[in-house]
Every structure is written in structure tokens, then in C-alpha cells.
Amino acid sequence: MATYTILQRFNNNVLIERDVLDTTANTYTVFDGNGAQVSQRAATAQDLAAAAQLDIASNQATIVSRANAAITANATFLALGAPTNAQVVAQVQLLTRECNTLIKLALGLLSDTSGT
After folding, report:
1. Both 39 and 62 in a single domain?
2. Residue 64, domain extent
3. What is the mean pLDDT of the chain?
């Protein structure tokens, strides 16, 4: 559960309103440009679905970033002439996380980034 800025309204590059969804308190609050609360209501199912989509997009970006980093890590390992046992063990652990990353991407399991 988290807090999300859902919408920000500007006039001449000045913030005039900000809508915030708090999934822990289950509230949708509107603040003016100075941070004063204008209104508050219970979060709707649609609000919570929007927050879940924000989480998925963020998790996908994290997972893709980790997959890109894996290319470099794997190249570094492959460049080792004779890896030590410790390096091999570390690489197997890394490969397991990398496989989890690819599996989550392939299956669209983007609700969290654990195991990647």
C-alpha cells in the first residue's frame, strides 16, 4: 500500500491543484497549490485499479532495468579465465534471479519485483 499523486494541475507553470490517492487510508484527497486540503473522499475501485497500474508500470521498468544490467554482469563473468568456486556460486544465484526476471516479463507477472 502506498500514496500516489494521481493528477497535478498547473496554470502558467504554477501548481494549482494536486490529487493524491492513499491506498493505506483508502482515501482520495485534493490539495490546492499550497498543500492545503480542498476535499477528501473514499477511494473507489477505479482509483485503486489506477494505482495498481502505476505499480505495474513502475515494476516493469525496474525489471527491464535489471534485465539490462544482467547483460553486463554476464559478460563480466564470461570474460573470467578461470572463475573461482565463489564466483561460480555467485553467478548461479545471479542467473536464477535473471531467469525469474525474464519469466516475470514473459508472463506479465509485474505486481512485484521480488526474486529479480
Report:
1. no
2. 56-107
3. 89
- For residue 49, being part of any structural domain is answered with no
Q: How many residues does the chain have?
A: 116
DSSP summary character for residue 82: S
Domain presence at residue 98: yes
Give CA separation, 9 vs 44, 93, 99, in Å: 21, 46, 41
Strand-pairing partners, residue 31, are: 18, 37
Contacts of 60 (CB under 8 A, 6+ apart): 105, 110
Amino acid at site 97: R
Cell 525496474 -> residue: 62
Whole-model pTM?
Answer: 0.56
Q: Domains in the chain: how many in total?
A: 2
